[in-house]
Amino acid sequence: QVQLAESGGDSVYAGGSLKLSCVVSGLPFADYCLGWFRQVPGAEREWGAIAGISDSGTTTYADSVKGRFTVSRDNTKNTVYLQMNSLKPEDTAMYYCAGSYFQVYGGDLLDPRNFDAWGQGTQVIVSS
């Protein structure tokens, strides 16, 4: 059974940092492409793309987070990370990690339709 478990969400002030983790089990982690997405309160049907990382380690970022967020993976720990710096109130959302067994690269890493396994999310609140 595929499971993705996010952690690290918290409430911080603008300008602060958080590091989210997503531990993945039940699938060949090293072969999977991974992405981070978010949903803002009141817009639960809209997935906001954040970043993705391919099985080979190449990364892609949404313009809204470039230069502030960094996605990485540790195949020895079956974990994908999202380091978030210079947080803004508009970053407030529920954050989800997702996995795809298909080879997803470039901008396709930012399309939630390319992912078929999802975690339950972790809440990030950024206050001004």
Write up this protein:
Strands 2, 4, 5, 6, 9, 10 and 11 form a 7-stranded mixed β-sheet that branches. A 4-stranded antiparallel β-sheet has the order 1-3-8-7, with no helix packed on it. With 128 residues, the protein is mainly β. It is built from no helices and 11 strands.
Order of helices and strands: EEEEEEEEEEE
Runs in which pLDDT lies below 50 for 5 or more consecutive residues are none
What class, by secondary structure content?
mainly beta
Shape: globular
Number of strands: 11
Q: Look at the structure and give the mean pLDDT.
A: 94
Largest sheet: 7 strands, mixed
Helix content range of the residues, please? under 10%
Put the structure in a nutshell.
With 128 residues, the protein is mainly β. Helices cover 0% and strands 47% of the residues. The protein is globular, with a radius of gyration of 13 Å.
List the helices and strands and how they pair.
Layout: E1 3-7, E2 11-13, E3 18-25, E4 33-39, E5 48-53, E6 59-61, E7 69-74, E8 79-84, E9 93-100, E10 117-118, E11 122-127
Parallel strand pairs: 2-11
Antiparallel strand pairs: 1-3, 3-8, 4-5, 4-9, 5-6, 7-8, 9-10, 9-11
